[in-house]
Amino acid sequence: MVTIFNIYSRSRIQYLICNPTRQPQLGPEPKVIEESPEIRNSLDMPPDQLHSTVLRQIADGTPYTAVDVFGPTVEFVSGPDDPDADFWVMRGVVPPGVTVPLHSHDDAEDFFILSGTQEMLTKSDQGLQWRDVNAGDYVHIPAGVPHALRNVSDEPAVELIITPARLGRFFQAIARPGATRPPTPDELSEFVAVATKYGYALGTPEQNAAVGIALSS
Length: 217
Hints:
This protein has helices spanning 37-43, 165-174, 185-197, 205-210, and strands at 3-6, 15-17, 53-55, 67-68, 73-78, 87-94, 99-105, 109-115, 117-124, 127-134, 137-141, 147-150, 157-164, 176-177, 200-202. By secondary structure, it is of the alpha+beta class. The chain has a single domain (3-10, 61-210), classed as Jelly Rolls (Sandwich). The strands form three sheets. The chain has an eight-stranded antiparallel beta sheet, covered by helices on one side. Strands 10-9-12-7-15 form a five-stranded antiparallel beta sheet, with helices on one face. Strand 5 and strand 6 (87-94) form a beta hairpin. The longest helix has 13 residues, at 185-197. The chain is globular. It starts with a strand and ends in a 7-residue tail after the last helix. Residues 7-25 have low confidence and may be disordered.
């Protein structure tokens, strides 16, 4: 069962994310509270290299590099620099006209829509169905549930993607930094191999056609 909630009605939110290493200089300088050994010990604080990060107006962008993941782009907000991270957070952008075909994976995946609108193929008691999701909507995709998404609007759809670390590493493995062209046959073959490694199952052309997605040959 896929869950969709509308949390906020406005199209922009301020989002606080704990990030273990990176510290972009955003917003006014905070008031610094001196840490005494007693405070550190009593709060069981982590080592000095671990810090929190505040990203303001994340719908508009982040300080991190966007990489192509075969259509959409993602920016890794938290996870890659922390080997002990249980989950990764990414800012995803689905450009107008882009479709992510039918697929499933062994890990759950969550989306919080920051701006724009898109269609997501979700599973309910009635089977698979396309649903519009807009700014403020939250979508939970359980592990193993087939899903797809497409942006049929004329504006980019921006979302936060929250995944277990394993699925985050899959996105990192398929990333094409600086790519501005369609993938080559070799890149597509590599994508299929990486998908198999990470438990990411791709729908067949027939399965995609059954839900209204035409795959190019």
